[in-house]
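Fig. S4 source data, part A: sequence.
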Amino acid sequence: MTHKPEHRVRGVDHAAFPTFDPVGTTRFYRDVLKFPIVHSICAAGWGPEKHPDFIHFFFDIGNGDRIAFFYYFGTEPSGDQSAPGDAWARLPHDTPVYFANSRHLAIHVEDEEDLLEYRRRLDESEWPVEMQVMHETIESIYTHDPNGYLIEITRALRPVTAQEDLDAALTIDALCEIARGEAPSMDKLLTRKAELIVERAAAWQDAGSGTAADGARS
């Protein structure tokens, strides 16, 4: 039996932040810095009662690391937005917990054994695991550190596919369009996303045909 080292984490999986401005956020990271969009989650009906629908989207920042953002439909900026600091630092005491916790650090581990080892360590400490969740592609445990920061430790359940990358790009293109309009919602996002699929289908088919033809000539 191979003895595993005491230090088992493999770096940052993602750092996550809330955003009131998905359009500007996408322009800055995707269009200005050229960080690819690699994953998105359309979350409708998640969480406890009165939890709003939201989009959770991720940018590749190299070496398998990601920076991620939450956009909550119908959640307006809280606190004094002219004050210094970031969106989270301006939040008042009555800010919903889901929003405050959207800013967190996620640390990647190799497998289930390592995840459960970190759960054991936390559960035996002053900072026990508060939640263990199976997401679409990852399984995670969560706790707050002594400073009140939410910490996530996560393992991959499966690789993210190329089709999911394409879906993420479509989702964010649709989000940027509907977020510029009145009363953005999940229904509007999904409708616009379906329209984009129809609009781009011919180009995808042409690109696929070209690839097949190139392969036949080689």
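Fig. S4 source data, part B ends here. The chain has a mean pLDDT of 85.
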